[in-house]
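Dear colleagues,

As part of the handover before I leave the project, I'm documenting each prediction I ran so the next person doesn't have to rerun anything. This entry is a single chain, and its sequence is reproduced below.
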Amino acid sequence: MRDHLGRPLVAVTGIGAVTALGFGVKDNWSRLLAGQSGIRRITRFPTEHLKTTIAGTVDLPGDEGFTSPVRVERMAAMAIEEAVAESAIGTKGAFPGPLFLGMPPVEVEWPHRFSLARAGDPTYPGMTAAAAGRADIYETCLYGGVGERLAARFGTRGAPITTTTACATGATAIQLGVEAIQRGETDACIALGADGTVQPEALIRFSLLSALSQRNDDPTKASRPFEKNRAGFVMSEGAAALVLESYEAAKARGATIIGLVAGAGERADNFHRTRSNPDGRAIVGAMRNALADAGLEPGDISYVNGHGTGTPENDKMENFGMRAVFGESAPPISSNKSMIGHTLSAAGALEAVFSLLTIRDGRLPPTINHDEPDPSITLDVVPNVARDATVKHVLSNSFGFGGQNVCLVLSGEPR
């Protein structure tokens, strides 16, 4: 089985997910379709002097004092375990292909700094000197360390690839895995995105960019993509993993096919640190590139899993891009972020998983908190209630800060 360009079809044979809604695909999917929100008040650190005090945190057992890389690794491992178990590929601890991990950048966080400052000198030179010989800090904050430990745990082959492309990171990891299979480098791989950066410094930085919602009074109502009163995204955590395989290899071993990653498109601009170029070329180009890569026309798309962050700028530009690509016949679009928040580096992978489930079950997840339509958003955003639909192909959008945009086309198994 080959695609329109003669490349191997890429099948998905296993999926795993962790979000603020729960652990595991089944729990997450049922709650998404029910329109439930996982946004809550932050309890893992003091928030008294912060403008935003809510997030979609994933509260792991024994989470006290975890730094972001540790949280990322634990969530990623949970998602991989679920995906590999469903795919029934290889043997335990010996996965027959490489690992592609999307995760956020890593830094020395305040708990590390406070522990070093207690050595007597709180200046950076003093803390640097106190860190000498602290292998624990070095190993925790080594960017590639998470991927190396996951690769060792699951027995993947070759050097693990770790990447970050802002909010498009999870989709980028999937694209890298798809292209490796298409090039014939492997018959299988694990692609995932994970993010656990709800910590003081990250929250403050996004707040200073005026990117975060400050609707702290009712956390479940704070994330409002495409709605008139939207006022920023809600920072969240999560992880999603996909086992990708050559369709021929998967069928040969009798695997159950969840769906296909039929196409991937990317396009970047360097207009602004957080804003898209007003001409929309990068957003439009990424969507069109994904469709072309899949060999599809705009009319073939049944549903769009939107980037839909809930910031005034992003939602306006996504509406613009959708109209440019689909014209007056735009398919329904909804935002999972209305329920799970913006999981940043994990978002593209989580939304790919939910797109596959949309095809499998013929159910469009809603965009909740859609109380007052925005006249400038002219799309069918599946407001508030899930909807039955026949879905063959889904376009999943991931538009990242700094103009890093990746779109995926997910499709059902060929008949």
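Residues 10-106+142-411 form a domain with the Peroxisomal Thiolase; Chain A, domain 1 fold (CATH 3.40.47.10). The radius of gyration is 20 Å.

All the best with the project,
I.
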